[in-house]
């Protein structure tokens, strides 16, 4: 009986340590996303682009500054297979898988409050909860960080500005799309909740 208690106690301690380690990793990844550390970005999009030289850093800085001005519209049209055809700011159409399309819809969703004409920031907890409800599975902060990196990679591959997915450690996440009372978050078409 004592061995079982010791074993259970040891398992509980290990679970607490594992949870603490995961939280530490999530904090580091969230900071990396916020700072757009070149090593993390380069690692996450290694398949999408060649080696990042000095000129690409300048390009990324220009893209970051351009993302300060929101796009006028994001068009999301769901397919029967739950993939989505997406057009950002009147650019080329591209396809997103279901999870990334869900994330984009949530980040573009109309907010009751306007933030300088841009869709408002959504707290991490709200985004995690919304994605968990859509998928029926619990989502971790680490998984959300990975989804944000994958969405940015897909945007870059499609020729859209990846930094339109804006991350702030204190405010949360948003997609830089103009929101007015008339256009409901920049004309998100076909992006209603399932």
Short description:
The protein is mostly helical.
What does this structure look like?
The chain is mainly α. It has a single domain (2-187), classed as Winged helix-like DNA-binding domain superfamily/Winged helix DNA-binding domain (Arc Repressor Mutant, subunit A, Orthogonal Bundle), CATH 1.10.10. It has 7 helices and 5 strands. It has helices spanning 2-35, 38-44, 54-66, 98-108, 124-135, 141-158, 184-187, and strands at 74-78, 84-88, 93-96, 165-168, 172-175. α4 packs across α6 (141-158). The longest helix has 34 residues, at 2-35.
Strand pairing plus helix content: what structural class?
mainly alpha
What count of structural domains? 1
Low-confidence stretches: 36-55, 183-187, 189-194
Mean pLDDT: 78
The CATH homologous superfamily is termed Winged helix-like DNA-binding domain superfamily/Winged helix DNA-binding domain
- Supply the CATH class: Mainly Alpha
Biggest sheet overview: 3 strands, antiparallel
């Amino acid at each position: 009986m004592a061995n079982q208690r010791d074993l259970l106690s040891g398992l509980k301690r290990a679970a607490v340590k594992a949870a603490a380690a995961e939280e530490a990793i999530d904090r580091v990844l969230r900071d990396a996303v916020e700072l757009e550390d070149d090593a993390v970005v380069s690692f996450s999009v290694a398949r999408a682009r060649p080696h990042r030289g000095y000129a690409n850093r300048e390009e990324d800085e220009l893209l970051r500054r351009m993302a300060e001005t929101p796009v006028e519209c994001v068009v999301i049209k769901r397919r029967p297979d739950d993939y989505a055809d997406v057009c950002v700011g009147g650019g080329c159409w591209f396809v997103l898988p279901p999870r990334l399309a869900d994330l984009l819809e949530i980040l573009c969703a109309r907010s009751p409050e306007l933030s300088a004409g841009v869709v408002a920031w959504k707290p991490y907890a709200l985004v995690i909860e919304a994605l968990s409800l859509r998928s029926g599975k619990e989502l971790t902060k680490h998984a959300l960080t990975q989804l944000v990196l994958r969405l940015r990679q897909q945007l870059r591959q499609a020729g859209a500005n990846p930094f339109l997915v804006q991350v702030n450690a204190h405010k949360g996440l948003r997609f830089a799309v103009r929101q007015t009372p008339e256009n409901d978050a920049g004309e998100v078409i076909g992006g209603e909740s399932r």
